[in-house]
């Protein structure tokens, strides 16, 4: 009788068992599997111990199945077949993803960068059903039902998994005629006395710029007559100033912009729930 409280058999033991049946012997099964006959004998012993029953009758030069061995043979074939179908299905799912994918991002970045990329993704994988929602606020991707968030920055909650997609270079710059009027800052704290275009980003402190130079970070609080939580609007303001300072020739003004502080790299990351830990 089989102990109903026994352990579950290992797929490897079932594979060896079927090879022994197919080749009608331990040595021939070992040759087929590329292992030793001792290994085959050991796996059969473990399988019989796990199932608490004898599976094979061993006589000189001949191996036959017991009644339980016949049952295990049928089950083993089905179980290993299911394992193979599982493996094939996973490979197919990775190579040809399908189903619904709910993504969120910010308005400006999502519209200009994420949306075009998702259009290409949909063309490549037509069985995907993609939905993109855009916000200019912090999103709780778990409670709001999102699979993935594409965001700028590295402020990733501990219960989420983040993957860097690309580095986003930011520079501190000014139009040439502004520097002629107001002077060029000599050090970071000088920015506190200048008119800056201020962008409110997610839940970061408003009006605080964090800049990096020579692998060290410094922060400075800035202000100015114009501020917004929209990166696109701040960009429009900056370009408007550039255009107006060079008789409408934006490309010449842009080329003449002075880089005052070494650019800082921030992350563009994809964030998804940690389904294991969270």
TrEMBL record:
Keywords: DNA-binding, Transcription, Transcription regulation
InterPro entries: LysR-type_TF_proteobact-type, LysR_HTH_N, LysR_subst-bd, WH-like_DNA-bd_sf, WH_DNA-bd_sf
Positions of the HTH lysR-type domain: 9-66
Pfam families: HTH_1 (PF00126), LysR_substrate (PF03466)
GO process terms (BP): DNA-templated transcription
Domain of life: Bacteria
GO molecular function list: DNA-binding transcription factor activity; sequence-specific DNA binding
Family classification: Belongs to the LysR transcriptional regulatory family.
Protein name, entry field: HTH lysR-type domain-containing protein
The species this protein was found in: Pseudomonas syringae pv. spinaceae
UniProt lineage: Bacteria, Pseudomonadati, Pseudomonadota, Gammaproteobacteria, Pseudomonadales
């Amino acid at each position: 009788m089989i102990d109903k409280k026994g352990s579950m058999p290992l797929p490897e033991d079932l594979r060896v068992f079927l090879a022994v049946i197919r080749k009608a012997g331990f040595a021939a099964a070992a040759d087929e599997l590329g292992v030793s006959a001792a290994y085959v004998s050991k796996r059969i012993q473990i399988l019989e111990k796990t199932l608490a029953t004898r599976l094979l009758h061993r006589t000189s030069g001949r191996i036959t199945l017991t009644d339980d061995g016949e049952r295990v043979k049928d089950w083993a074939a089905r179980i290993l077949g299911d394992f193979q179908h599982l493996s094939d299905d996973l490979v197919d799912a990775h190579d040809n993803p399908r189903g619904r994918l709910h993504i969120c991002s910010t308005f400006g970045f999502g519209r200009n960068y994420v949306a075009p990329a998702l259009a290409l993704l949909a063309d490549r994988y037509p069985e995907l059903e993609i939905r993109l929602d855009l916000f200019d606020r912090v999103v709780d991707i778990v409670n709001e039902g999102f699979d993935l968030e594409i965001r700028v920055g590295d402020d990733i909650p501990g219960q989420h998994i983040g993957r860097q997609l690309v580095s986003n270079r930011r520079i501190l710059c000014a139009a040439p005629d502004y520097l002629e009027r107001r002077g060029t800052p000599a050090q970071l704290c000088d920015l506190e006395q200048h008119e800056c275009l201020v962008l409110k980003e997610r839940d970061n402190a408003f009006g605080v710029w964090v800049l990096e130079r020579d692998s060290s970070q410094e922060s400075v609080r800035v202000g100015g007559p114009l501020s917004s939580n929209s990166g696109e609007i701040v960009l429009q303001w900056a370009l408007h100033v550039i255009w107006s300072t060079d008789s409408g020739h934006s490309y010449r003004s842009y080329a003449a912009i002075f880089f005052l502080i070494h650019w800082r790299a921030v992350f563009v990351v994809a964030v998804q729930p940690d389904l294991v830990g969270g």
